[in-house]
Amino acid sequence: MKVIFFSFPGRTMKKKAPVTLGRSLIWFSWKLVITFSVALCILTLIKFHSSSRSDLASASLSRRLRPPPDTLSARPKIAFLFLTRRNLPLDFLWGSFFENGDVANFSIYIHSAPGFVFDESTTRSHFFFGRQLTNSIQVAWGKSSMIAAERLLLEEALEDPANQRFVLLSDSCVPLYNFGYIYSYLMASPRSFVDSFLDGKEGRYNPKMSPTIPKGKWRKGSQWISLIRSHAEVIVDDDIIFPIFGLFCKRRPPVDGSKGNMNIKLQKQHNCIPDEHYVQTLLALNDLEDELEPRTLTYTLWNESDTKMENKGWHPITFNYANAGPRRIKEIKGIDHVYYVSELRTEWCRNNSTLVPCFLFARKFSQGAAMRLLSLGIKTRFDS
Ligand SMILES: *[C@@H]1O[C@H](CO)[C@@H](O)[C@H](O)[C@H]1NC(C)=O
Ligand SMILES: *[C@@H]1O[C@H](CO)[C@@H](O)[C@H](O)[C@H]1NC(C)=O
Ligand SMILES: *[C@@H]1O[C@H](CO)[C@@H](O)[C@H](O)[C@H]1NC(C)=O
Ligand SMILES: *[C@@H]1O[C@H](CO)[C@@H](O)[C@H](O)[C@H]1NC(C)=O
């Protein structure tokens, strides 16, 4: 706020024709009132101008007043954010995972199809009852509505000041360790875990996003993130980058026979998948990359033989009962580094100087695979 000094004319006008004390007092008061009114008008104008600009820049998803972070009195919680199509097919596994935790240490939020209810008739674990958002939206996979749903989950979870870590999970994700291990792993790091790398050759960046999103800040990475509170706030409060993604980051539609020549135009579009770029790019634009562990905590196995399907790219392999045996799980838990081809970067997974397992979660697991995992028991790394 600018500080403006006004000098009162009355003070400088010392030499005056003698008038009676009463009249000069009234005159002086009048001048004070007028001066104050003018000053007030000017101040209001200045304030209006500067605030209408900063409101644009900082307006948030909702104008709800967020509670101040309350780290002293409450125990820090992990918010588990489930992004699902409808039900949670692996609820029985997660139920046993949460059974093993301390209810004071976590909270659960679910974004599902509007109107879907989590209760005794749809869900095998009471932890999920009534945990779906009331303001959920219809999500189209690969569209902006996906990142809109993520923002709704984060917004709701920020309402609880005890939530200090925010983990985004799909309906096919499984935990690889017990609750206590995952809790201390996440709490030990003061950073977010966000897989983020340069996306040089793929042509998903649309130059129309410039200059708000310069090409140098364009990032790619896995949708499955774990955030610290301040980064969750940056995402929920973003009112500038999200609309640009809505306009210019779109998935290229498949060739449609009925559309004829229209296909040529549609196929020229930049093939962009919002949820693989939005959070990474937004955090880079906010210069927050030194507060990240640039890796995901969620393991995915890619089917690299899928290259001929250019449009869709690689597909994650779904684990089933047969290929989710103890040896496979042990292999995944044993991974302690990740290689990023586009940056020639090897990311060692560390907790300070100690090497730790890279992955706490894995996808995509079928019910059979999850059942096998449950029968093996989700153990800590030390007793597996
Ligand atoms: C719950 O949180 C407390 C305090 O942060 C911690 O000491 C305890 O180990 C946690 N319990 C579990 C099961 O993670
Ligand atoms: C990370 O280190 C902290 C102490 O520095 C320790 O309490 C925690 O258990 C470690 N976490 C893992 C996953 O090794
Ligand atoms: C590493 O150790 C320092 C000091 O003990 C601690 O402040 C910091 O949070 C630790 N970092 C991680 C990633 O555990
Ligand atoms: C990988 O993709 C190919 C081609 O689509 C398919 O034939 C194969 O079954 C897939 N492999 C796995 C393990 O899913």
UniProtKB/TrEMBL annotation:
- Molecular function (Gene Ontology), one example: glycosyltransferase activity
Q: Where are the transmembrane segments?
A: 25-46
Signal peptide range: none
What's in the keyword line of the UniProt record? Glycoprotein, Glycosyltransferase, Membrane, Transferase, Transmembrane, Transmembrane helix
Q: Specify the domain of life of the species encoding this protein.
A: Eukaryota
What cellular component GO annotations does this protein have?
Answer: membrane
Membrane-topology annotation of the record: Single-pass type II membrane protein
Where is this protein found?
Membrane
Q: Which InterPro entries match?
A: BC10-like (IPR044174), Glyco_trans_14 (IPR003406)
Q: What is this protein called?
A: Uncharacterized protein LOC111496969 isoform X2
Q: Which organism is it from?
A: Cucurbita maxima (Pumpkin)
What is the taxonomic lineage of the source species?
Answer: Eukaryota, Viridiplantae, Streptophyta, Embryophyta, Tracheophyta
